[in-house]
DNA sequence: AAGTGGTCTAGACCACAAC
DNA sequence: TTGTGGTCTAGACCACTTG
């Protein structure tokens, strides 16, 4: 690269055109005061992201080395590095010194369910005994309006609903209702789910090519209704933690709505603030 | 700097000796497999951190420019930059392009209580009406053993306890009990607290030089007892969100234990997962 | 115009893993 | 030994803010 600083839109390596706005979650859609400047490494970042979405590299795969990518995009290694840095802090990529950079995966997330924030009260940080999972039902339906809205679907679109109970050492602890868009999850059945061991999100990756990337949660305290009380083994009215999660794939596309009811007599939802 | 890579412990700029282990939250205290290697920028990071703790730069102050710090520590600007980058993502420093780098502060945190994760259900991300605060009591006592333990105090040490209620548009919403170590907060009184407007953590900074840097929270669903029910205007047994927060200053020193009971009929605790 | 953070480059060398 | 990520440097130029 001849000039030290390719002053915007100098990018034309192997990909047709660089998007003016890279991150996608930035511009407030109202009169950008700056004419949409985005640094090179952001453009590289979104090119890499595009390859991830397109499935060029699959979860668990090693992506090309920093130097290879630098050559491919015709930028310096440091610029690629900064792009990868951000993708790594977003948990889309995982760096392993001496080995390479890999596409993150929910499988082999060595020790934990990526999005499950529950810990036993006597919190030895380990000792996280694996949960026993029991699928109660899995059915297809035309979804409730509110669910459809949150998943960016039309009112009449098909949905999959899954209900399951998680138990710790025999005692029921969490009741979950999960809604998924029908189209991407065609073929998901009670048998598939029941026979699977390992995180559900790992199954989504392997079977349906859907990778959950981030999520938001709304947490409330609610009273157990008759249904929940029966399934969780508590009295009606018992306080339960309601955790409503919206999980997203790449590009901020919502792909799962999940409502969990947690018994919190001997465990808690753990959160780190900074 | 003559050699391109000062191979460990070449650091002797204006500070006597660089600590072998920089971050403090890393080594498991058990047979370090590597002989405690820590990169230069980590050492710079902890030198800057030390200056922050020592009060060399106070909350809101501008710290020296990257080049000044580079000269002072006798490293390159890029190395200082990486150190500052990490401190900025930890929310200890705030970068402002064109102006400088500033010590973060809970005052003028333009729009939000830094650690309060509560949002109204109909979540227009703004419209966060300011809460009305009412201090119910502020007293000194010899602390309960469990509280003392979490604050790393002896059983007999003095504590300050504060109880207050937060309301939104006239309706009580949050009941908080706050425990603080007596020594650093000598002089804290009901009057001080009541006459203050603005975040409590801003007052802690300004009056007591204690800056809260991070926190952990344990969240549960509980039933309102008589006390809480009366103060929050709900019936006994009403489900409440219990949020137990341990807040830390620099160096992972716990400085506040806070237990909040939240009414969540029309609002929720919001969390982002990635 | 001067000062500060932000981006980008090119090249050197270190640490780690695998062959 | 080789390849990969990780650190460090020195220098250039861009973008933003202030006088």
Automatic annotation (TrEMBL), chains A, B:
<dbReference type="Pfam" id="PF00392">
    <property type="entry name" value="GntR"/>
</dbReference>
<dbReference type="InterPro" id="IPR028978">
    <property type="entry name" value="Chorismate_lyase_/UTRA_dom_sf"/>
</dbReference>
<feature type="region of interest" description="Disordered">
    <location>
        <begin position="1"/>
        <end position="31"/>
    </location>
</feature>
<keyword id="KW-0805">Transcription regulation</keyword>
<dbReference type="InterPro" id="IPR036388">
    <property type="entry name" value="WH-like_DNA-bd_sf"/>
</dbReference>
<dbReference type="Pfam" id="PF07702">
    <property type="entry name" value="UTRA"/>
</dbReference>
<keyword id="KW-0238">DNA-binding</keyword>
<keyword id="KW-0804">Transcription</keyword>
<dbReference type="InterPro" id="IPR050679">
    <property type="entry name" value="Bact_HTH_transcr_reg"/>
</dbReference>
<protein>
    <submittedName>
        <fullName>GntR family transcriptional regulator</fullName>
    </submittedName>
</protein>
<feature type="compositionally biased region" description="Polar residues">
    <location>
        <begin position="1"/>
        <end position="11"/>
    </location>
</feature>
<dbReference type="InterPro" id="IPR011663">
    <property type="entry name" value="UTRA"/>
</dbReference>
<feature type="domain" description="HTH gntR-type">
    <location>
        <begin position="38"/>
        <end position="106"/>
    </location>
</feature>
<dbReference type="InterPro" id="IPR000524">
    <property type="entry name" value="Tscrpt_reg_HTH_GntR"/>
</dbReference>
<dbReference type="InterPro" id="IPR036390">
    <property type="entry name" value="WH_DNA-bd_sf"/>
</dbReference>
């Amino acid at each position: 690269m001849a000039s030290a600083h390719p002053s915007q839109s100098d990018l034309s390596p192997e990909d047709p055109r660089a998007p003016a706005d890279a991150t996608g979650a930035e511009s407030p859609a109202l009169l950008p005061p700056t004419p949409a400047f985005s640094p090179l490494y952001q453009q590289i970042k979104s090119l890499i992201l595009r390859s991830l979405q397109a499935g060029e590299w699959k979860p668990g795969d090693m992506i090309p080395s920093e130097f290879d990518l630098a050559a491919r995009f015709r930028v310096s290694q440091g610029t690629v590095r900064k792009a990868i840095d951000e993708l790594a802090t977003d948990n889309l990529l995982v760096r392993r010194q001496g080995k390479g950079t890999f596409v993150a995966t929910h499988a082999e997330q060595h020790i934990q369910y990526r999005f499950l924030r529950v810990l036993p009260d006597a919190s030895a940080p380990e000792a996280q005994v694996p949960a026993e999972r029991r699928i109660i039902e899995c059915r297809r339906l035309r979804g409730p309006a509110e669910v459809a809205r949150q998943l960016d679907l039309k009112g009449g679109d098909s949905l999959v609903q899954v209900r399951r109970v998680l138990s710790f050492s025999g005692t029921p602890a969490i009741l979950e209702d999960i809604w998924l868009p029908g189209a991407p999850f065609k073929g998901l059945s009670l048998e598939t789910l029941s026979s699977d061991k390992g995180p559900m999100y790992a199954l989504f990756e392997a079977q349906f090519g859907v990778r959950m990337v981030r999520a938001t949660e709304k947490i409330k305290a609610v009273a157990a209704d008759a249904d929940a009380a029966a399934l969780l083994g508590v009295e009606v009215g018992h306080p339960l933690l309601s955790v409503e999660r919206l999980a997203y794939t790449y590009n901020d596309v919502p792909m799962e709505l999940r409502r969990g009811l947690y018994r919190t007599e001997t465990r808690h939802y753990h959160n780190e603030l900074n």
